[in-house]
Write a structure and sequence with these properties.
Length: 340
Amino acid sequence: MTDTRQPLLEVDRVTRWHPLKRSVVPAWRTHVKAVSNVSLSVYPGETLGIVGESGCGKSTLARTIVGLHKPRSGRVLYNGKQISGLSSRRMMPVRREVQLMFQDPFTSLNPRRRVGSIIAEPLVVHGVGDRAARRRRVHELLEMVGLRSEYAQRYPVEFSGGQRQRISLARALALSPRLLICDEPVSALDVSIQAQIVNLLGDLKKELGLTLVFIAHDLSVVRHVSDRVAVMYLGRLMEIGDADAVFTAPQNPYTAALSSATMAPDPHQGRRQRRILLVGDVPSPVDPPKGCVFSGRCPKVQPLLCRWERPLMRDASGAGMQEAACHYPLLPDELTSVPV
């Protein structure tokens, strides 16, 4: 899949493993292989959605991008410059342009600090403005995310989950970043509140010219907000491409199984869609399969090739809209069947 635009963010064969204590595992199982050889690009002004089951490495990838984790191998490039492995001092200019919105609004906000102090902290750390200017900026940010400016004097405990996530968003926007990475920002919220936060992110993206990486396990939300979608499983990238192409004509059987679990907006389409039920358990990330990581649950698995050879990303359709890591990509007639 080729694109002539210059990426704002590039993830080049990034691997991140978490060490385990050797006293509780065999010596040859020493790491959780959270992210393995993931490559993707994010272009200015777009929203890239990253989806997958819990534990597939989405959040680890986000934290590796922003420098909270150091990659075991591979590179992260922002605006053409490598940022992985930089010291804290050299990362300071990058942090002004790349911000992370955390998943849980109940634990990501310091309960002992007032909301105004929480939002102003990035301004203080980066030495932006004097006290009066920072106060004005805090009030501006609160109003930008749909809260009243007098809320700056309150504590996080006085707010609901949706309001706390708006506060987290205000803090992430304090330095006017170009790239905002949203790590499952609506997973801890009620459905109605989820819609409010998603719509707010869409409005702010247009208003501020943001580029978004939106991480979630809810495919319906990701499909609504994303221009392109990347699908992960057990630390590996399984498929990436245009959102409509990935959801309507998936090439990887895992993507098709995820897509079939969501409710189709068109009831007639829902009747035609075949529900794919996966069997077996997700393998341990400490000891993933040697070949395709999905081979143990894939309905199209071939014992020799799939279980022993790692598939490469390729575009089986030839349309240039998506790529999938699969030895036997799905055909169009395999995506529909009688209703179940």
